[in-house]
Design goal:
This protein is α/β, with parallel strands linked by helices. The protein has helices spanning 12-21, 39-48, 64-72, 87-96, 161-168, 187-202; strands at 3-7, 25-29, 54-59, 78-81, 101-107, 120-125, 150-152, 172-175, 180-181, 184-185. It has an 8-stranded parallel β-barrel. Helix 4 links the parallel strand 4 and strand 5 (101-107). Helix 1 (12-21) runs parallel beside helix 6 (187-202).
Length: 204
């Protein structure tokens, strides 16, 4: 069954929404501006979250010790590196934490294989001006030859999610702006897209 990640939660209402819809993962963003939260807010939100939902911390070129601290305090269950983190950075981080690591790859050319030490890769849209969260779809043909499990992000919403599942069969789909209304998470949009994904998985 395809996993579901709802990213960019920052309000108690957002936690209430996902507790109702029950995705597999939710994302706390510790970078950028639009969806960024701090350690204290993340700790508070995690305390309100259904324990069956795993938390993913999203980081961009962050100080490693801040990631380690969040992991040791069990605020996040997985680490998503969305910046320019290299193999050395990933190796050193793995020595310090036990949580799985997702490395985001911003897609701009055809990908057949990736040799990195992360536990998962996440494919997202490439732009010149930001590391992620642009809300735009990339050319899925560029990753169709990739045969390992991966997270898929980049402009996913209720109108294109079923095509994404059919064409790419990702391990997990990652949605943020596609489940928002006026810049904040929307319960009905979250429920609708979760229903579409679960129905697709159950009919395979």
């Amino acid at each position: 069954m395809v996993k579901i990640k709802i990213c960019g939660l920052k309000r108690e209402e957002d936690i209430n929404f996902v507790n109702i819809a029950r995705p597999d993962y939710i994302g706390f963003v510790f970078a950028g501006e639009k969806r960024k939260i701090d350690f204290n807010i993340a700790t508070k939100l995690k305390s309100l979250l259904n324990k069956k939902i795993q938390t993913v911390g999203v980081f961009v070129n962050s100080d490693m010790e801040s990631i380690v601290s969040l992991c040791k305090d069990c605020v996040i269950n997985l680490v998503q590196l969305h910046g320019d983190e290299d193999e050395f950075y990933i190796s050193k981080l793995k020595e310090k934490i036990k949580q799985p690591i997702i490395k985001a790859i911003r897609v701009k050319e055809k990908i057949y294989s990736i040799n990195i030490k992360a536990d998962f890769v996440l494919f997202d849209t490439y732009t010149n001006f930001e590391y992620g969260g642009c809300g735009k779809v990339f050319d899925w043909n560029l990753v169709k030859e990739y045969k390992q499990s991966f997270f898929l992000a980049g402009g996913l919403n209720k109108d294109n999610i079923e095509n994404a599942l059919t064409e790419l069969n990702p391990y997990c789909v990652d949605l943020s702006s596609g489940v928002e209304r006026n810049g904040v998470k929307d319960l009905n949009k979250i429920k609708e897209v979760v229903q579409i994904i679960r129905k697709h998985s159950n009919t395979k």
